[in-house]
Amino acid sequence: MHRLDGAAGGGQLLRTALSLSLVTGESFEMDNIRGNRSTPGLRPQHVACVSVAGSVANADVDGEYEGSSRLQFSPDGIRADPVEASVGTAGSTTLVCETLLPVAVALDDPLSLTVTGGTDVRWSPPTDYLRHVKRPLCSTFGVDFDVNVSRRGFYPAGGGKLAVRINPAKPKSLDLLHCPQLDEIHVYSVASEALSDASVGERQVEGVRDALAGADIEAPVRSSVSAVESTSPGTAVVVVARSGDIVAGFDAYGERGVPAEAVGEKAAESFLDWYRGDAPVDHHMADQLLVWVALVGGRVRIPEVTEHVRTNLDVIRAFGYEVDVRDEGESAVVERVE
């Protein structure tokens, strides 16, 4: 059984451990879960991650409750029966889905997962990031999954519903070292119907366009604006950059008292920071791709070596995968050692 310390990181360490445990069939025990956070221990979305992973793996689980600082997880095979989970209130549904995606390499049949909770909430990827960034990028190395959101869920009530269908996969190694010329920027702006009179969705797009106007970018900027039903009012905007098969994404969430234009500007500024660098993937994807480098090999250039990257790699190495990261000044390269 792998002994892991979760004190130095957040929920990503737990999700990585669960993903690798599902794929390898190896057990782990994690202590001090989220020990350095203001609210340490498992939160509702982490409990949901453990619950769906346990269901898929017929696992023996100890410590699966909110506030728990210790978890023991022992899988016993993989089953592809449909799985349902409720995060409760506005806990992130996208991060629950993220936990199960690597199991594609161990599936014989498609696996369906339905999660209720927050589909677009802070500190997690928005639904449109999962749909328009993660999904097409994964398809380039042979991992296919479908995403459907039947209802959006914003903070604090949640109430959204997100479903994914993960197909069996035999991925090829990653080769994401260089970013081709930018082909297109697409802005996905979503806002609750309750905010339609204030044209919040449209104004978020305007904020993106205004922020990009002063940059020397020749690629066309397209946009999609959606007004959605939701229990709590909320907004999200995702700026998607497409360069050949490479896709990167940059998001921001609406906040009370913050103009919609400023929300769009925030997402655009994140894009511009990435655009001025030389990494093909964004910061969020850098974290998410580490487990794939471990599982299928290859190399990925990431924007920088953050503490998230370092602690995530510690968990990956604890499962026996040799993955190195080489700092190259303005970026870094992550590579599995063969």
UniProtKB/TrEMBL annotation:
**UniProt EC number:** 6.5.1.4
Domain spans labelled RNA 3'-terminal phosphate cyclase insert:
181-274
**What keyword terms does UniProt attach to this protein?**
ATP-binding, Cytoplasm, Ligase, Nucleotide-binding
What top-level class of enzyme does the UniProt entry assign? ligase
Pfam families on file: RTC, RTC_insert
Question: Mind telling me which GO cellular component terms the entry cites?
Answer: cytoplasm
List, for all copies, the residue spans of the domain called RNA 3'-terminal phosphate cyclase. Answer: 9-319
User: Which residues act catalytically here?
Assistant: 308
Query: Biological process (GO) annotations?
Result: RNA processing
Say which domain of life the source belongs to: Archaea
- Single GO MF annotation: ATP binding
Record localization: Cytoplasm
Q: Which reaction does it catalyse?
A: a 3'-end 3'-phospho-ribonucleotide-RNA + ATP = a 3'-end 2',3'-cyclophospho-ribonucleotide-RNA + AMP + diphosphate
Where is this protein chiefly located? cytoplasm
What PROSITE patterns does UniProt report for this protein, alphabetically?
Answer: RTC
Listed binding positions for ATP are 284-288
Query: Which family, according to UniProt?
Result: Belongs to the RNA 3'-terminal cyclase family. Type 1 subfamily.
The UniProt function text for this chain reads: Catalyzes the conversion of 3'-phosphate to a 2',3'-cyclic phosphodiester at the end of RNA. The mechanism of action of the enzyme occurs in 3 steps: (A) adenylation of the enzyme by ATP; (B) transfer of adenylate to an RNA-N3'P to produce RNA-N3'PP5'A; (C) and attack of the adjacent 2'-hydroxyl on the 3'-phosphorus in the diester linkage to produce the cyclic end product. The biological role of this enzyme is unknown but it is likely to function in some aspects of cellular RNA processing.
Q: Can you name this protein?
A: RNA 3'-terminal phosphate cyclase
Q: What is the native source organism of this protein?
A: Haloferax mediterranei (strain ATCC 33500 / DSM 1411 / JCM 8866 / NBRC 14739 / NCIMB 2177 / R-4) (Halobacterium mediterranei)
